From TrEMBL:
Superkingdom classification of source: Eukaryota
SUPFAM superfamilies tied to this protein: Ribonuclease H-like
Parts of the chain that traverse the membrane: none
Pfam families, per database record: rve
Record GO biological process: DNA integration
Protein name: Integrase catalytic domain-containing protein
PROSITE patterns noted in UniProt: INTEGRASE
Organism of this sequence: Araneus ventricosus (Orbweaver spider)
Domain (Integrase catalytic): residue spans on this chain: 30-145
GO MF term list: nucleic acid binding
Amino acid sequence: MKSYIRDRVRACVKCQRGKIFQHTKALLGTFSKPDARFSHIHLDFIGRLPFSEAKQYCLTIKDRFTTWSEAIPTSDMSSDTIEQALVNGWKSRLGTPVTITTDNGRNVESTLFCELTNISFSHRIHSAAYHPQSNGMTETLHRHL
């Protein structure tokens, strides 16, 4: 009976025209391939990990062009810690990125992190809220760690 009703409704033109679509699906967006190494990076945190030298979080950074990955151990997830880890652990060796992709966490939405990206002339891209696959490069890195 259920299959009969389903087939009947699918065949009915009036039923299909009156059907209300609950979910409108947007096209999937993709990042364009950067033209230089270390110009587009993805940032995220992994943690709470077991303590090791008073560090319990890792700032994970992955380059989009070369897929070079780094995990910088930190004691907390504050924006001040991100700034220090990014400047001392990434920018001092590999240069300032043109584009930084982050999630919508409070630590990367702070005024300090916004000032840091403005001073270094970096463009920020936010991943979709409650959708970790939109920053999949770092999520894949977290699986491997």
